[in-house]
Write a structure and sequence with these properties.
Helix content is 73%, strand content 5%. The protein has 226 residues and is mainly α. It has a domain of 158 residues. The longest helix is centred in the last third of the chain and has 40 residues. It is elongated, with a radius of gyration of 20 Å.
Length: 226
């Protein structure tokens, strides 16, 4: 049987997610071919931002991959990918500055990132256990299993929603510091904005997918109860 709840609620969000991923890849690829006038690499930009905020203890490492960049707060390390670490493109500088923005968030105790970190354990469990629990609950008419699944998946949704201000704020910090410090000129900063705006859409799409999956779960469980 065709699952109409999936088609109605989840499929549009997945299409949005695929479009967002294509958009960020194409936008980054475009600006990864334009070198920064001052010759800054991704590593240079991240190091400069960290040092200006007194984060001399935060290390920068090179990792394999494309756009696998991230900040690891447990190790106090920014890991920059092949396409960012030693590249002096506008795209590379923008992505590196974004990750440095996450390090600054942690150092300043930015509230949304604290909330997101607190949700991570429940969200990790919910991401793989919520739907099986709810579906088993539906199969055996067990309200407590259904409710457990809904609660766990709600943690996934909350995690994705809280991620939005965290990512938007890191991008805003990156754009502001790149402009104010004159690491990039005005036209180059506009390119960074385009790269980070495209990246932001992937988080919007992820949040939309999570919300629509929760709506689908609620519809399925209410249908069973009726």
């Amino acid at each position: 049987m065709i699952d109409m709840t999936y088609i109605i609620f989840v499929l549009p969000a997945l299409i949005l997610a695929m479009w967002a991923q294509t958009k960020v890849s194409s936008t980054f690829n475009r600006y990864s071919k334009i070198e920064s006038q001052r010759g800054l690499t991704g590593h240079d930009a991240a190091r400069k931002i960290l040092d200006e905020h007194g984060l001399h203890h935060v290390k920068i490492e090179h990792i394999a991959g494309n756009l696998t960049d991230h900040f690891d707060p447990r190790a106090n390390v920014i890991r920059l990918s092949d396409s960012v670490h030693s590249k002096n493109s506008i795209g590379a500088v923008g992505v590196a500055a974004h990750e440095a923005g996450h390090a600054v968030q942690h150092s300043e105790g930015y509230v949304p990132i604290k909330v997101r970190n607190a949700i991570i354990p429940a969200a990790n469990i919910g991401s793989y256990a919520a739907f099986p629990l709810a579906l088993i609950g539906i199969l055996f008419s067990s309200d407590w299993l259904i409710n457990a699944g809904i609660i766990l998946f709600s943690a996934v949704v909350l995690f994705q929603l809280v991620t939005l201000p965290v990512e938007f704020n890191a991008s805003n910090r990156a754009v502001r510091v790149l402009g104010n410090s004159e690491m990039l000129d005005r036209n180059e900063v506009r390119g960074v904005k385009k790269v980070l705006s495209a990246a932001a859409m992937t988080y919007v799409a992820a949040a939309a997918t999570a919300v629509m999956n929760l709506v689908r779960l609620l519809v399925l469980t209410n249908r069973n109860r009726d």
